[in-house]
Specification:
heterodimer, A: alpha+beta, 1 helix, B: alpha+beta, Serine Threonine Protein Phosphatase 5, Tetratricopeptide repeat, Immunoglobulin-like, four-stranded antiparallel beta sheet, 9 helices
Chain lengths: 64, 374
């Protein structure tokens, strides 16, 4: 049976789409870091997503 | 840790190759403002007093690409070159929210502390096992205690909420540290905020004025490994001859940490003295406290001295602290331990000054299943 090129293209697209599923939220490798809205030192609220589009090094630390 | 990263990152931050962002786990934002001033930290720094990010330990340095993906979950300085060299293909991703948001969080960040406390309390009333809500309730209660909106019992309620939270999640190191800041001396004590005096000195040497702290660290927050003497004194009013403060010219609010203590462990008691209707008489003896520690409770260390201002009459809040050891065989349950304070107060500036006594009790709840604090 000959398989149409169109059918092959649809199957190939489906396979590629399944392999590129949306990553989970979280702090692990390959996960999308959750957004947060917190006060900054000047008292103004800000979000992590304010820095989307840039490489970010996020330092989670404490003063003690 | 941060100074090393600051030096490494400076050229890359200045060139725009990377943005450094801080998230600090801290009850008191002005302490980190002072730190940032000291270190000339020009990064954006967020204050996560509520531990919304739900981290259990710090420090954690996360490398995030331009699409918001975590590409290096736990970076060290040696990893920086790899992070900068990686070519991350940008993709659009949905922006997930933090886990476990509560409506009360917005009240807290807006400074609406009564609303925040009520909203968190409503959550834990319905579900006492909501550990995050218990912790955040404690944060909001302590924030209110340290504000003009303070209500009696806020600090003790905060410790209670934190103790419940830690019992539900004993692996939460950040929550444990929050209690430890107010609790007994650590088994391996260190000066949590010893950097503050160094910071103030260097800032003044630069010709600047250090950021003022609304709440100074004290007690266990400043204790190093040096021994702290216990002030042993004869009972100052054994026969009860000093008149009682019937008019309530001075108030004392005890805060016992932790709220539940295991036999064999220790509690730290903070006594907060206020004079809503009077003035401290600084020309007479300072506050004296007698703690009737007996039976399974032994006074093991105490700071029964407080600074005395130069002015003759003042109205500042005064804090004294001590620690009790709880014997291994202490009976489980609530023990109300008696104590009293003697103080000199004046009804008004230049007015009549009185030497008075206030009797009070403080609760020590012995529970073999209490979470380990130290």
């Amino acid at each position: 049976m000959r398989v149409s090129r169109r059918l092959l293209g649809v199957v190939l697209f489906a396979c590629l789409s399944a392999g590129a599923a949306e990553p989970e939220a979280g702090y692990g490798q390959g996960q999308v870091h959750p957004d947060f809205e917190l006060p900054k030192l000047d008292g103004e609220m800000g979000k992590l997503s304010d820095y989307r589009g840039k490489r970010v090094l996020l330092f989670n630390f404490a003063s003690w | 840790m941060l100074p090393v990263w600051q030096r490494l990152l400076q050229p890359h931050v200045e060139s725009g190759a990377v943005v450094a962002v801080g998230v600090v786990q801290e009850q008191h934002p002005d302490r980190i403002r002072l730190y940032a001033q000291w270190r000339k930290l020009g990064w954006p720094v967020f204050v996560d007093a509520l531990n919304l990010l739900d981290h259990q330990v710090v420090p954690i340095i996360v490398g995030i690409n331009a699409s918001g993906l975590v590409v290096m979950p736990s970076m060290r300085p040696d990893d920086l070159d790899v992070f900068l060299a990686k070519d991350f293909a940008p993709r659009e991703h949905a922006t997930p929210a933090l886990p476990h948001p509560l409506a009360a969080d917005a009240f807290f960040h807006a400074g609406k502390l009564d609303e925040a406390v009520a909203a968190y309390a409503a959550v834990v009333d319905k579900e006492a096992g909501d550990a995050r809500a218990q912790f955040r309730l404690g944060v909001a209660l302590l924030r209110r205690f340290e504000s003009d909106a303070r209500k009696p019992g806020d600090a003790q309620a905060a410790v209670g909420a934190w103790t419940r939270a830690l019992a539900l999640r004993p692996d939460q190191y950040i929550w444990r540290r929050r209690i430890q800041q107010y609790g007994p001396r650590l088994d391996k004590p260190y000066n949590m905020f010893g950097w503050i005096e160094e910071a103030r000195g260097e800032i003044r040497d630069r010709g600047d004025e250090p950021v003022a702290l609304a709440v100074e660290p004290r007690g266990t927050e400043l204790v190093g490994r040096e021994p702290v003497p216990t002030v042993q004194r004869a009972e100052p009013d054994r026969e009860g001859k000093v008149p009682r403060d019937e008019a309530g010219l001075a108030e004392v609010e005890p805060v016992v940490t932790p709220a539940r203590v295991r036999p064999g462990a220790r509690v730290r008691v903070r006594l907060v003295f206020r004079v809503p209707k009077a003035f401290w008489n600084n020309e007479a003896d300072p506050i004296a406290v007698h703690v009737a520690a007996r039976g399974p409770f032994v006074l093991v260390e105490g700071n029964f001295a407080h600074p005395v201002p130069e002015e003759a009459e003042t109205r500042e809040e005064r804090v004294l602290e001590f620690e009790l050891a709880v014997a291994d065989g202490a009976r489980p349950g609530l023990h109300d331990l008696p104590a009293y304070a003697l103080y000199n107060v004046c009804e008004k500036v230049g007015g009549q000054c009185l030497f008075l006594r206030r009797d009070f009790t403080f609760p020590v709840h012995v529970d073999p299943d209490a979470p380990k604090i130290q």
